[in-house]
């Protein structure tokens, strides 16, 4: 379970990450990242990174969708420390994600985050 401060809940936050952020696609998921650098906001302590998940009905019924979301949430929770402070991350599951092993999803998530974070840093 992600802590309350690390969860995306508002539609506007999802839209910001998906429309204004960068994205990296993989065979079973797409990761959207909006880094937390905003020159117009002067905060002393930046907020923690926040993550949200999109698992559509194309994945399967409610039981299957929730299982995929739990697996993704577990994988993202382990990687929150590597994300920049104030960043917004949306992980969108694609059809076929329900039948892939967690290790494969972890590799795809790592590859997507590496691509996105490499572009932010460099």
Automatic annotation (TrEMBL):
Q: Which UniProt keywords apply?
A: Endonuclease, Hydrolase, Nuclease, RNA-binding, tRNA processing
Q: Which GO terms describe its molecular function?
A: ribonuclease P activity
UniProt-listed InterPro entries: Ribosomal_Su5_D2-typ_SF, Ribsml_uS5_D2-typ_fold_subgr, RNase_P
So what does this thing catalyse? Endonucleolytic cleavage of RNA, removing 5'-extranucleotides from tRNA precursor
Stated EC number for the protein is 3.1.26.5
The portions of this protein that span the membrane are none
Q: What does this protein do?
A: RNaseP catalyzes the removal of the 5'-leader sequence from pre-tRNA to produce the mature 5'-terminus. It can also cleave other RNA substrates such as 4.5S RNA. The protein component plays an auxiliary but essential role in vivo by binding to the 5'-leader sequence and broadening the substrate specificity of the ribozyme.
Q: Which family does it belong to?
A: Belongs to the RnpA family.
Question: How is the subunit organization of this protein annotated in UniProt?
Answer: Consists of a catalytic RNA component (M1 or rnpB) and a protein subunit.
Report the protein name in the record. Ribonuclease P protein component
Organism for this UniProt entry: Streptomyces chisholmiae
What gene name does this entry carry? Answer: rnpA
């Amino acid at each position: 379970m992600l802590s309350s401060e690390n969860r995306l809940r508002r539609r506007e936050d999802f839209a910001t990450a998906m429309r204004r952020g960068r994205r990296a696609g993989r065979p079973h998921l797409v990761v959207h990242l909006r880094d937390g650098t905003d020159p117009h906001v002067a905060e002393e302590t930046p907020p923690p990174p926040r993550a949200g998940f999109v698992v559509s009905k194309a994945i399967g019924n409610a039981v299957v969708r929730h299982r995929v979301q739990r697996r993704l949430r577990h994988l993202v929770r382990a990687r929150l420390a590597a994300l920049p402070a104030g960043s917004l991350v949306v992980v969108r599951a694609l059809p076929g994600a329900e039948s892939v092993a967690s290790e494969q999803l972890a590799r795809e998530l790592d590859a997507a985050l590496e691509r996105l974070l490499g572009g932010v840093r460099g």
